[in-house]
Design goal:
The complex is a heterodimer of chains A (265) and B (415).
Chain A (H helix, E strand, L loop, with lengths): L2 H6 L1 H15 L8 H21 L15 H23 L1 H4 L1 H4 L7 H28 L8 H28 L3 H15 L12 H9 L1 H15 L5 H25 L3 H4 L1
Chain B lengths: L1 E3 L10 E17 L4 H6 L5 E16 L3 E5 L6 H8 L7 E6 L3 E4 L12 H11 L4 H15 L14 H14 L4 E5 L7 H16 L3 E5 L3 H7 L2 E6 L2 E6 L1 H15 L8 E3 L4 E10 L2 E3 L1 E3 L3 E15 L2 E8 L4 E3 L12 E14 L5 E10 L6 E14 L29
Parallel strand pairs in B: 4-8, 4-9, 6-7, 7-8, 14-20
Antiparallel strand pairs in B: 1-6, 2-3, 2-5, 9-10, 11-20, 12-13, 12-15, 15-18, 16-17, 16-19, 19-20
Classes of the chains: A mainly alpha (265), B alpha+beta (415).
Amino acid sequence: MSLRTAVAHRNLLYLLSLKELRTRYRKSLLGWAWSLLNPISQMIIFSILFLKVFGGVPPKGAASGLTNFPLYFLAGLLPFQFFAVSVTASIGSVQGGASLIKKVAFPHEHLVLSIVIAQFVTVCIELLVLSVTFLLFGHFMFQWLVPMAVLLGLIGLFTIGVALTLSAANVFFHDINYLWGIVSQVLFYSSPIIFVPEQIPSRSVRAISNWGPTGSFVRAAQEILYDNRMPSPERWLQVSLYAGVTFVAGAWIFNRLSPRFAEEM
Amino acid sequence: MSLRAGPASTTADGYALRVADVTKTFRIHHERASSLKAFIAAGGRNRYEDFYALRNVSFDVAEGEAVGVIGHNGSGKSTLLKCMAKILTPNAGHVEVTKRMAALLELGAGFHPELSGRDNVFLNAAILGMGRKEIAERFDEIVAFSGLEQFIDTPVKTYSSGMYVRLAFAVAINVEPELLLIDEILAVGDVTFQQKCMEKFVDFREQGRTLVLVTHDTGNVRDFCDRAIWLDHGVVRSDGEPAAVIDEYTETMLGAQQSTETEGMRRGDGQITIQRVELLVDGVPVDRFRTGDDVTVRLHFEASESIPKPVFAISIASFTGALVTSPSSRNVGQIPDAISGSGVVDIELGDVPLVPQRYVLHTEITGYGRQRVYDHLQNARTFDVVTGSSSETHGVVTLNPVWKISGDDVVPSLE
């Protein structure tokens, strides 16, 4: 699908994203609160595990001076969840749009993009709530939301790249879903969300968690939100490369496969 | 449904749609691997054969033209429509669209049950490619056309299927395409709504817009289109005047499925039976004839004993079951006192005014007192009528009308 038709259908993208946001919590009692309750419950579980079970020492924020594991955890979890939840929701989205794809010509990528956009809006709201929480702990970080927004944009590109690839592949092989279930676990536990990279004894494991694709995004987010310092230029370059390469590759793969969707379904 | 914006300018030759040498194949998988394991087990290959749904199809549709694409099931006409609508990508050749196009393939594709009618109108119109402002401007018109003002803010999952279709059609038709592709959707909704759709299509035509109708209903093509294209096994078999193309099509289709005497359902005492039913035109047995031909039905009977006062009857019904006529020898008092052995009954029908379609013929021999049924043969045979002296196609018979138009100021046609 060419860029021209994608632009001509921008209204569709807007409405699909809106639909995504509106229908997600239909018929649920707590509605939007779920998008906050989920990270909070995880925060409680992992804080008990880290602090009480394993007796871990919370990292010290370089510039902020924070020593608070729950906040450290949330700073890493929110950007990771934005990525993981978006991809999980995207994988079936193209196949799920089969009735539409077989009957209507429209830019298929909008099915995927609308999900990532809706998740983007969600993570932004979560981040604002997190900022208020940080404030309650006497830690002001609103000025850091600007670099965080840039970082989220890059994570968004990375997410779109992965989501486009997997959702297109899922049309041809339905087991992408299960595969992703394992991969997302690996990515979660290899990223420094529930541990502190400096405390890892093994050098190679430390390197992976620091410089792996999701690990680097998580590190950058922690540096901004928890440590209150600007990530190094190398870090920015690294996340930009991950985002750019993944996005371009995903868009290329999707464009190659999308003309075949209608007949494969 | 889909809508694409094409360049607004008119092309030099003034075509709205060009199908250039389009070939489309589908893979018929012998063992389709839809899991990675199966795929790898098969050595990374799926075994398949190519099936040609379209083979080098080419034609132009001029601006303002209404074209009907006809063909039997599996002729490739749906594939062609999907290629024109850009849902499928041809393997070779290309489709050019110079106009804003909307394709009505399925009404309400993309309706979301949880959302209100209002939200779905916006979403559906956006899928068709409309901008937000444009939709807002047309919104009232769309709702008015659907007649669902009261329900527009309730979720569409509470709609009846009729309401659903009405709203969907209202959206589709109000995107104001200059080129409309339609797939058999003239048969949706109740009679009133169909009427409304027909009016909209007529308006559409009068405004000089372009229409491509893909259907197996040749009647619609005859009524609506100024050109017909007959697609047969993926190739254009004929292209031209609807009447000529449709006649050729129906004759070939009917010829393909031999209509002769069938194994009918027989009941009765059996002392006298119908052995064979023939149709004669000019004394020659035929399987089909033309509207207006002079036809004789010949029944061959055989009686095993002497039958007193037998009454012969036939009845002719359309293939869909509507009874056309049911003459009996009792009606005209042609009752022999007794018959035995074998013989024939000729029923001269004269100029048969049946319109082109398939018919079924039943026969019956009863006693004069009606209490005895000697032989009742349901579906004794079928026969086909093809276009002849009349060009009427609707209903069952033509009454051979003669038209005279007079008035204060009627300019006669030059023909």
